[in-house]
Structure formats: C-alpha cells, structure tokens
Amino acid sequence: MPHRYFFWFILPALAAMVLFIALPIFSVAVQSLFVEHEQVMKEVENCGPFKCETVLQVDNETTARLQEEAPLGRFNGLGTYTNRAHLAFEEVGQIWAKTETWEDFVAGVYNLPLYKALFFTLSYTIVVTPLVLILGLFIALGVNRLPPITKGPTIFASLLPMIVTPLIGSLILFWMVDADGILGATLQVLFQDGDLSLKASAPLTWIMLFVYGVWHNTPFAFVVFYAGLQAVPHETLEAARIDGASRWQQVRYVVVPFMMPLVIFITLMQLMDGLRVFEPIVGFSASAKATSLSWIIFNDLFGDSKLYGSAAATSVITITAVCILLTPVLIRTWRDFHRKST
Amino acid sequence: MGKLRIFGAVAALSLTVGVAHADCGISSGNISVLANDFPALHAVVSTAESCAGDGITFNKNHTAKHNEISVAALSADPAEYTSKIVANSSIVPLLNKDLIRPLDDLVAKHGQSLKPNQLIRIDGKVMAVAFMANAQHLFVRQDILDQVGMPAPTSWEEVLETAKVIREAGIMEHPFAALFKSDWNLGEEFVNMYVGHGGKFFEPGTAKPAINNETGIATLNMLKALTEYTNPDFLTYNTSTVAPLWESGEIAIAQLWGSTGGQLLDDEGSTPEVVAATVPLAAPTVAGGNTPASTLWWDGFTIAKNISDEDAEATFIAMVHGISDDMVRANNDSAVWLMDAYVPGKAAEGVAATAAAGAEPYPMLPFMGLMHQALFQELPDFLQGNETAEQALADIEAAYVTAATEQGFLK
C-alpha cells in the first residue's frame, strides 16, 4: 500500500486516538502539576437546629477572584508526585534513616498509601497473568477435543465469567463467600472452623481477589487460544504423532510454539488489565485489606472534596508503571518483527 | 389540524389525570431536585412534586451518589438542579464553591410556616432549611438483656461489659455490631467516639489537625475493644449489612443510624419476637463523659445560585410545601422531623434521647471532609492489629496534612 493511501486509511482511527486517548492523557498530566488555590478563610457564626458556633468558612469572593486569575490552580511542579500520598520521597528517606533492618524498612514503606497499593497491584498482576495463560490454554485444549455437539454449550458456559459485569460478578462471589453464603459455610465445615471468614483476614482476602481475577479473565485467554488452535497446521501435528510424540509433547513442541504470538498478546492485555484492577476491590468491600492504584484514584475523586491533582498524579504514575511492565514484551515483539523483515 | 389539537389536549389531560394537584401558589417555573435516596427524602420530594402542573416542570433525582455530582451539577449556569437536599457535611462543598444562594428574602416572603430552629444560618444568612434530624445511637434486644440480667447500657464501657456477659452466657459469639465498613462509615465511628471523649479535631481557628493525643488514643482503644465483640467481617459492615443481621436476630447490641429504626421496628423482614424486643436507646457516653459519643445531623434543602430568581422562588415554595405538616402527618414514622406536626414515635426515641443528652452536631467545617477521609483510609491498619494507636494517629494526621495542603487549606 502506498504511504499516501495508508495515511488516509489510518486517519480516522488516528484522529479518534488523539482526541480520546492522547489529549485526555495530556490534560491529566498537566492537571497533575497543579494544586488548588490557597483557600482564604474567615470566621463566621453558624446556627443550626442544635446550636450556634463560630467556625471557619471559605471566603467565596476572594477565592473566586483567585480562581478567575488562574483557573488551573497553583503550579506545584512535581510536588504532588513526591508528597506522602504518592512517591513520598521524604517519608521514605526518613524511614530509611530510622530503621535498621530491611524488614522494618519494607514495613515502613508498606505503610505509605501508594506503595501499599502498588504492592497489591503488582502481586495481583504477577499472580493472575500466568494462571490465566495456563488455565486458558488447558480449557482451550480440552474444549477442542470435545465432540462437536457439546462444544457450543461448553464454550458458552466457559465465557460466562467474562460476560458477567465485573462489579456484579464480584458482588455475587462476595455474597457466596459470606459466612452464611454457600462457599463460606462450606469452607467452615471443611476446615471445621466456625470462625473462618474470607473477608476478615488479609491473606484470605488477597487469595479471594486473585481467584476472582483468574475466574474473570480466563475466558478471554481461552477464546483467543481456542481460535488459535483452529489454525494449528494438521500436517505438523500429524508428523509429530508419526514421530511418536506423546500428547503432552505435541502441545509442548508444536502447539505452544505455534501460538507464541497469542501468548504475547494475552500477556500484554493481562498486564494492562491487572494494573488497573479496581472493580473486585469495591465489589468485595476489600479496601481495608487491599488497595490498588485505580482504587486510590477513585478514592481521591469520591469524597466531599475532590483531589484532582492527586488523582491526576496517581494516573500518570499508573500509566508509567504500565509502560515499564510492557517494555520487555514490546522489545521482544519489536525484535521478532525485525527478524522477520530482514 | 383540529383533530391533532384535540388529540394533544386529550393526551395532556390523560397525563395529568391521577396526579393530585396541590395548589401551592406557583404559576410557572422549573423545579428540579437532587437528593439522597432514602424513604424520608422520597416523602419530602414527592410532596413537593404535587405542586407541578400548568407551566411548572418538575424533575427529581434520588441517588446515593448525590455528593459526587452535586458540585459539578450546581456549577453549571444555569444549574442542573434548582434544589439540592443536603446534610451538615454535604452542604460544605457547596458553600466552599459558593453554589447556593442566601434564602432570607424567600423565607420572609414564603416561609411563615418555618420554625426559627429550622433555618441554617451561616454568617448571618439563611443558607438551608432543615427538616429532619438524624444521629447514630444504640439499639438493644431487651429479651437478651433480661436473659443475662443486665440493665440497658448507657456508656460504651457498659456496652463492652454487657457484650462480654452475653458471650460468656453462650447466647451469641458476636453480640455487638456497628457500621465499621472501611469507607465513610468507619470515619463516622471515629468521629462519634472522639467527640464523645470531648476531643477537638483541629487547633482552634486553623485547619491544623489536633487528633494525635491522649484522647485520640483512648478513642482508638475503645473502637478496638468493641471490634472484639463484633463479627470478624466488621470492616465490611454498613447499614445494609447490619440491619438484616439485626432483623434475623443475630445481634443483641448495635450502634446504627436513627433513620434505620423504621426498618428495624416495622413488621417486615423480621420475626415479631425480635421486633418486640428491639429498643432504641440514646447513644452511650464514654470515659465518664456527659455527652453521648455521637454526632447530630440535620437534612435540609438548599436552593442553587446559578438559576433565575423565578425558578428559585418556585422551587422554594414547592420545597416548603414538601415539608408541610400534611407531609409530616402522612409520613410521621419515616424520620425525626423538625416540624411542629411531628409526633415522635418509638423509632424516634433514640435520636430524641441522643439530642436531649446534649450530643454535638457534626462539625460543619470546610476541611472536615478531608479529615473524615484520612480517618477511614488509615484506621483499618490499626483495627486489624497491624500497627499501634500512636502510629495510626500519626498516619491520619500525615494523610490529612497532605490532602489539606493540596486543597489549599494548609500551607
């Protein structure tokens, strides 16, 4: 295709990407450099149904004038990035100076909100991604061997976890693992522990969230692998069989290498999805035990007073984290691409 | 054309048939109300809606997420809603951004039925009209107290003692429950307990935090002690979790919102035995204090600033009609109303007793929301035994200072 045609062909998609992805990211990045104006306050007397008291109140006129002069707020540079709610350089430095063992240092850093969230988010991504890949592959291999008549219903049933809205799915599971729910009660009987509660202990909550993540994401890997399986060349498989390869060897040396591009594709998608894990934390009311980067952003924008600068800074940090995690995979794809083209 | 016009008239008639029109004395205007989603507010807004009719359009939006959209919706010019129903915390963001109008002239013109204590005055100007009160207070199961021979608890120390006796008698393993869900709810529990200890959240006249002290530690230790008698899932407990547990008879003592009383005392969702034994009490005192460890709340309506004076007047008249004595008489048990026609029922006893015992109102400060948020972000670590009370309080102050600096309240 001549370059000119290619340009016109890609233009609508490119325009949409600039408009809906690049510009918002740019605006978020700009917002993260600013914080709210200094609030000018005055003492006023407030009276309600219960009593009167003298309290501080925002002086609206002065604040409105400040707002008009600089609608973005006060320029704060990278100040928001380095404060305690984010990278907390100063606090980390203090903890480093105060603690003597690595264990204490890690515990101190883990007490800071962003690092705590980062720790869970990375753990979630690192645990869920490989499990999704492996399970997805095995389900695809299994379904592929089914007689045609049962294939349709099985595929449909296997896709259900992906079709169910994440929030609804996690709420349903949340009720099931309740001490009075079917899963929670069964576990109590199995372990003969009437106090066993998946919601009460942090490790169990983490495992519950990981299991939910695998449950929800495996269908995606399954569908992609299943489609890939249909394209595995029969000749190669047959040749492997004639050479005496066992079923496991066929999978290991023919099917998996053939589907390697799909593995990379799913890994990329899972890394991105994992890093923005959010719904299960809300659905499972798990924020006391596990927070994620997306949850922090949500929390900043949720309350009575909205911390736009803080949320924007966390967003930029999340995007950076995604880029860092994706780099190895992207480099590999880039190399493959070059090897093929030369 | 003629047929079409007749058809239009018939359609218009059929639309209005069945809706009782109250004559509120409004001739025209747009009225739209944004409010939280619970029965008492439905009653108020629906009654106001009966003013709609010729030349008057009426919209309403009841949503639990009202606070997330209120600032954006009222910042628009003209504002998306002409009235927002607020509480003492949710009025603050609207005041901070100057989005609601003073109501003095409207009160003088159309507010003869309002009582002076319903008018929320800020810096001398009426900014909201309150119509109901709410507070967290105790509910106890009298049958279980009788069974163990304990009197109704009046202090949190007695609550602990009673819970211990109930557990040791083998009646319930987890006799106590409160709204400890690790969101706004948990922050409110700290606020209540801290206020009960006589604590102040800020250094006087400034936005500087002042909770890292003996009072803060006592507050945390009491909360921690109470969690020993709750189900280990307590950090996921909000009203919609605890109310059904109460109704199914699994809890003997609970600190809940007064507005939940109606649900616990009606004849739905529970057995007659549990309902008959459910008794609302004043919120307990703590550490020998005189005032209950609970904060008083009011709900009231405000009128948006960025709307025409005509719409503001129409909205005000409709909302005053919404909180009329007729509405109160029809919905007497839905809330603790501030209007004269209200006859306090059993469900209101807890709030009334809490207010009578001198509970403090929830602090209406521009930066209280940030403190509340810092509280519930940092408290779970302590309640789960991962850190000391001192560390938790230091974390809360640090989180608050970070947020308040970003918002411009602190330098």
Give an account of the 3D structure:
The complex is a heterodimer of chains A (342) and B (411). Chain A has 342 residues and is mainly alpha-helical. Chain A is built from 16 helices and four strands. In chain A, the strands form two sheets. A two-stranded antiparallel ribbon of chain A has the order 1-4. Chain A has a two-stranded antiparallel sheet with strand order 2-3. In chain A, strand 2 and strand 3 form a beta hairpin. In chain A, helix 7 crosses helix 10, helix 10 packs antiparallel against helix 13 and helix 11 packs antiparallel against helix 12. The mean pLDDT of chain A is 89. Chain B is of the alpha/beta class. Chain B folds into two domains: 173 residues, D-Maltodextrin-Binding Protein, domain 2 (3-Layer(aba) Sandwich), CATH 3.40.190.10; 214 residues, 3-Layer(aba) Sandwich (D-Maltodextrin-Binding Protein, domain 2), CATH 3.40.190. Chain B contains 17 helices and eleven strands. In chain B, strands 1, 2, 3, 4, 5, 6, 7, 8, 9, 10 and 11 form an eleven-stranded mixed beta sheet that branches. The longest helix of chain B is centred in the C-terminal third of the chain and has 18 residues. At the A-B interface, strand 2, strand 3, helix 2 and helix 15 of A face helix 3, helix 4, strand 4, strand 11 and helix 16 of B.
Task: List its salient traits.
heterodimer, A: 342 residues, mainly alpha, MetI-like fold, 2 domains, two-stranded antiparallel ribbon, 16 helices, 4 strands, 71% helix, B: 411 residues, alpha/beta, D-Maltodextrin-Binding Protein, domain 2, 11-stranded mixed β-sheet, 17 helices, 11 strands, 16% strand, globular
